[in-house]
Amino acid sequence: MSNRDWDKFLIPYEQAVEELKIKFKGIRKEYKKREEYSPVEFVTGRVKRISSIFSKAKRLNVPMENIETGIEDIAGIRVMCQFVDDIEKVKELILLRKDMEFLYEKDYVNNQKDSGYRSHHIIVRYPVQTSLGPKEILAEIQIRTLAMNFWATIEHSLNYKYEQNIPPHIRKRLVKAAEAAHELDQEMSLIREEVKEAQQEFETKSQMVSNILRDIQRLYTYGKVTEADRFYQSFKELWEFGQISQLSHLGERIRLAIESAVADPEGTV
């Protein structure tokens, strides 16, 4: 297969990665719009490099004509989570989807590799619509915590440097690092609810601030300059140290002022 043929071969995989990234980012966005905790922290994706495809085909004894079915991770998506428990939730979301077919999974979270690698892999069959018509491809979705991902990224770089033959003394340190990452995930799971509450409070406060500033600007557009200035000064006093309840009260006062301005646009302040 020539380089040009390979470029054509990879087109549907590139399309699948972009579509899947958008869909998983959409899951996170939907949770945030509903002001709920999202099990998806962030999403990345990649199409395997041709050299990596060759190497894996050789390692697995996959003939070139069987690459589409013999190598399942040419299209790869990584879904990062904050907590280990989120991994199962993301898996459940994938199982509910009708736009991809769940084939099987590989649980390296509860059954870690000897190297220390942890992640949950799901193989799906995903349909893409190309200019030549529909095509189904295999894709691998890796679900892991931020700690797991940090470790896996380091191991990947070292495997590339040492051509899959990491020296024993470095391999030993990697195993210790994997244990430390696992302990971090366990500790974070113990304070999961506290972390979620803190993040939710931050999100709520951020939304309140946006709404208050937007509504103050509306007062300016209605010509209520003095009133808007007064509210803005109150906001500045609360911004750094004010409680959510105080911001909420200020927001309600501003909304009442807007309603009054709408009802009596010619009124005076």
Question: What would you say this structure looks like, in words?
Answer:
There is one protein chain. By secondary structure, this protein is of the alpha+beta class. The chain is built from nine helices and five strands, in the order H-E-H-H-E-H-E-E-E-H-H-H-H-H. It has helices at about 5-35, 50-60, 65-70, 85-95, 145-160, 170-190, 190-220, 225-240, 245-265, and strands spanning about 40-45, 75-80, 100-105, 120-130, 135-145. A five-stranded mixed sheet has the order 1-2-5-4-3. Strand 4 and strand 5 (about 135-145) form a beta hairpin. It starts with a helix and ends in a 6-residue tail after the last helix.
Shape designation: elongated
The helix fraction, in percent, is: 55-70%
Query: How would you write the strand order of the largest sheet?
Result: 1-2-5-4-3
Mean pLDDT: 91
Features:
single chain; 269 residues; alpha+beta; five-stranded mixed sheet; 61% helix; elongated
List the helices and strands and how they pair.
Elements: H1 3-33, E1 42-47, H2 50-60, H3 67-70, E2 75-81, H4 84-96, E3 101-107, E4 120-130, E5 133-145, H5 146-161, H6 168-190, H7 192-221, H8 225-239, H9 244-263
Parallel strand pairs: 2-5
Antiparallel strand pairs: 1-2, 3-4, 4-5
Helix pairs in contact: 5-6, 7-8, 7-9, 8-9
Short structural summary:
This protein has nine helices and five strands; from the N terminus they run αβααβαβββααααα.
